[in-house]
Amino acid sequence: MAEILSSGEALERALALLRAGDVVAIPTETVYGLAGDATNGIGVARIFEAKGRPRFNPLIAHVADMAMAERLALFDPLSKKLALAFWPGPLTLVLPQRPGNGIHPLVTAGLDTIALRMPRGFGGDLIARLGRPLAAPSANSSGKISATTAQAVAADLGARIKLVVDGGATPVGLESTIVKAEGDRLRLLRPGGIAAEEIEAAIGMELLRGGAAGIEAPGMLASHYAPGAAMRLNAGTVGEGEALLGFGSQRADGWRRAAAFLNLSEAGDLREAASNLFAYMQELDRSGARTIAVEPVPFDGLGEAINDRLSRAAAPRDNTQPTP
Ligand code: TXA
Ligand code: MG
């Protein structure tokens, strides 16, 4: 069972776990978050695993200050204005990523945008001490309601995590409002802890609402993760000139012929595989092979999400429709 420590006494223990690539449930002003180091793929994969999130949905990167935010993303003037007006607070801004920002691609589900938020209280102190952004979705099992007390977190996730930091009931109790920069306008992606009207008053402009399919559910476009190379899944053999993306210790027939080879996890660890997936797909794509053959990955645990991403990457490339 997870240890519950008050926010006054938990800082060093939380830092040690995060530095070791583990996850920690922390209070924020909105809801409790399940936090991991956003630059550490294993830590980020553990978040998905602990939540049992069936698909990789991008996570919010939490920052300590404006300097950290600007190292991660490119701010347009309106978004900057909102950050200065509402941070720290329950506002999340979706912005273009700054290239080379060190964020693990699992955090953003491989998108070129990133969701940023500066939380109040313990989370902010923790991030400042760690010196790195924290990826954190709400600290609840997938499909359950967000937790607003440490006890609710422990009852739900206690068997799967080591530490819940108790900061009392979260003051906002509702997730952050998410706004996305779109040209010289801003779009409301998720209503939340700051009313849309407050945001509109601050920028002197109405927010765009609704809109193009897929925006609210990024990463759900069938071909979103498609590399330049074709993808051939569940490969039992390797063809001439194919690159091979492996899993586990059993190799596909003819693997020595592969033009390039990377193994998602020699040990067959799905968490390790999840944290390597996007980067390895990108690296094999850069090898110039026309096809990437992929060894079978089991469907249990994080395997479902890995297979989901692999099949999206293998889907017909002209498909821009969201899939169920
Ligand atoms: O208040 C909150 O926002 C809480 C606390 C812990 O900070 N976090 C939270 O995270 O609600 P989560 O994972 O439950 O919701 C994050 C939402 C998801 O709907 C995700 O699709 C969206 O943010 N999101 C993340 N990155 C995005 C991006 N690059 N573009 C569009 N939406 C994004
Ligand atoms: Mg949530």
From TrEMBL:
InterPro entries: DHBP_synth_RibB-like_a/b_dom, Sua5-like_dom, Sua5/YwlC_C, Sua5_C, T(6)A37_SUA5, TC-AMP_synthase_SUA5. It is found in: Cytoplasm. Its EC number is 2.7.7.87. Residues 8-194 form the YrdC-like domain. Gene3D superfamilies: DHBP synthase, Threonylcarbamoyl-AMP synthase, C-terminal domain. It catalyses: L-threonine + hydrogencarbonate + ATP = L-threonylcarbamoyladenylate + diphosphate + H2O. Its main location: cytoplasm. Required for the formation of a threonylcarbamoyl group on adenosine at position 37 (t(6)A37) in tRNAs that read codons beginning with adenine. Belongs to the SUA5 family. This is Threonylcarbamoyl-AMP synthase. It comes from Mesorhizobium cantuariense.
